[in-house]
Amino acid sequence: MALIVQKYGGTSVGDTERMKNVARRCLAAQKAGHDVVVVVSAMSGETNRLLKLVAQITDRPDEREQDVVVATGEQVSIGLVAMAIQAQGGKAVSFLGHQVRIVTDSTFSKARIKSIDAEPIRAALKQGKIVVVAGFQGVDETGSVTTLGRGGSDTTGVALAAALKADACEIYTDVDGVYTTDPNVCPAAKKLDRITYEEMLELASLGAKVLQIRSVEFAMKYKVPLWVKSSFTEDPGTLVCEEDASMEDVLVRGVAYDRNEAKITVVGVPDQPGMAAKLFGALDAKHIVVDLIVQNPSRDGRTDVTFTVAKSDFAKAHEVVKQAAQEVGATGIEVDDAIAKVSIVGVGMRNHSGVAAKMFQTLSQEGINIQLISTSEIKTSCVIHTKYTELAVRALHTAFGLDAPPAVTANPTVSEVDALKGQKA
Ligand code: ADP
Ligand code: ASP
Ligand code: MG
């Protein structure tokens, strides 16, 4: 007998019929002899709807109050899923984040989990119940509701699996595993049987929203065997796991893109010690996470500093930087939110040269201008104009030999997802 944590995303609980399907799957796992903990997201589109309501009230929401609103989507889902299990003859109980003490820090809208009290869950499992936990939400030390960032139910699932020392964590979504790139953008994408934690971490942090980055960090740290599967098929899915020798044979495992960033350039920064510290210190003081940073060589004692931030932090970052740029005596600021970051990822890149050059050639052959470049041991990223995102992803996918043979691309889950696209969160 094993303890399994299953997480179902927004599309998987998108309507009551789908919730009944989730209930059937949970009961089947229990019938197979397992203890089952289920984490559910808000119904698809619900979190966006709640955020729109907030935006109708104010364009500068109080972050604590915004979390109070957006956390409600998951409350509806857990109650309905628990009742769907009961209606099929099973025993189930639902818990909100604070009821299982998912304690986080107080960084509203992107809080980090600090601890979980597994006892109420263990007690309910002992009584033969399926435990249904709200994803995405926690509670800080002062009792305020917090949320874990978009896609945060993945992290709830993996963190619970780690806290309960579960035998497996299964993330059920609307595609049947992790693909070489987003199958909804590139029809030739191939499903991977296995991917290393490290590669998945890079893909997630570079925009592959199939798993939230924090969930992969948790899985890697606590060695949680992590599966990504479809809630609509019986496909075994993809296992995210430790690297073994054979996995290094592949040069590029996948291609990711991210359209959720914006670019800010501080022009004419005096080329003196301490300037970058002042600019980025001001952003850090407001908890703004900076991604790529590029500083040009100085000319006439001045330099330009360009960096990217999440679009959700763009307005705040712009304001902070305006002030900081004045303080350091910079001559101006330029902003651009029509950008996308495309990236290639693979552990095999560690031991091979020429990968970045091939990426640049591929983009150049498509007439795509590269605005910024960033590399690390196992990835290369280029910032380009957002209008070229799909073209760049497909061209890179082909150039690095990732395209599936035509017969394999007929994927029922993907076409089902296409039909659902309008409903997605
Ligand atoms: P859920 O609501 O179940 O959490 P998400 O929409 O957050 O689902 O994540 C699943 C989506 O992730 C897929 O529909 C797909 O468009 C996208 N995606 C991006 N990159 C990948 C990838 N490499 N493999 C699989 N899916 C990906
Ligand atoms: N409902 C939240 C979101 O849409 C969390 C999640 O689905 O993982 O981002
Ligand atoms: Mg998700």
Briefly say what this structure is.
The chain has helices spanning 16-31, 46-57, 63-70, 72-87, 119-126, 153-163, 197-205, 213-221, 275-285, 314-328, 355-365, 389-399, 412-420; strands at 3-8, 35-40, 92-95, 103-104, 113-115, 130-134, 137-139, 145-147, 168-173, 194-196, 226-230, 238-241, 254-258, 261-270, 290-295, 302-310, 332-336, 339-345, 372-376, 379-385. By secondary structure, the protein is an alpha/beta fold.
Total helices: the number is 13
Measure the end-to-end span: 35 Å
- Low-pLDDT ranges: 409-425
| Beta-strand fraction estimate | 15-25%
Mean pLDDT, as a whole number?
93
Number of strands: 20
Bound molecules: adenosine-5'-diphosphate, aspartic acid, magnesium ion
- Tell me the Rg in angstroms: 22 Å
How would you describe the overall organization of this protein?
Keywords: Amino-acid biosynthesis, ATP-binding, Kinase, Lysine biosynthesis, Nucleotide-binding, Transferase. GO terms for molecular function: kinase activity. InterPro entries: AceGlu_kinase-like_sf, ACT-like_dom_sf, ACT_Aspartokinase, ACT_dom, AKii-LysC-BS, Asp/Glu/Uridylate_kinase, Asp_kin_monofn, Asp_kinase. Residues 264-347 form the ACT domain. Pfam families: AA_kinase (PF00696), ACT_9 (PF22468). The protein is an alpha/beta fold and 425 residues long. It is built from 13 helices and 20 strands. The chain has helices at 16-31, 46-57, 63-70, 72-87, 119-126, 153-163, 197-205, 213-221, 275-285, 314-328, 355-365, 389-399, 412-420, and strands at residues 3-8, 35-40, 92-95, 103-104, 113-115, 130-134, 137-139, 145-147, 168-173, 194-196, 226-230, 238-241, 254-258, 261-270, 290-295, 302-310, 332-336, 339-345, 372-376, 379-385. The strands form five sheets. An eight-stranded mixed sheet has the order 3-6-2-1-9-11-12-10, with helices on both faces. A four-stranded antiparallel sheet has the order 13-18-20-19, with helices on both faces. The chain is globular. Residues 409-425 have low confidence and may be disordered. The structure holds adenosine-5'-diphosphate (ADP), aspartic acid and magnesium ion (MG). Adenosine-5'-diphosphate (ADP) binds at residues 9-12, 41, 151, 173-175, 178-179, 181-184, 203, 208-210, 254, 417.
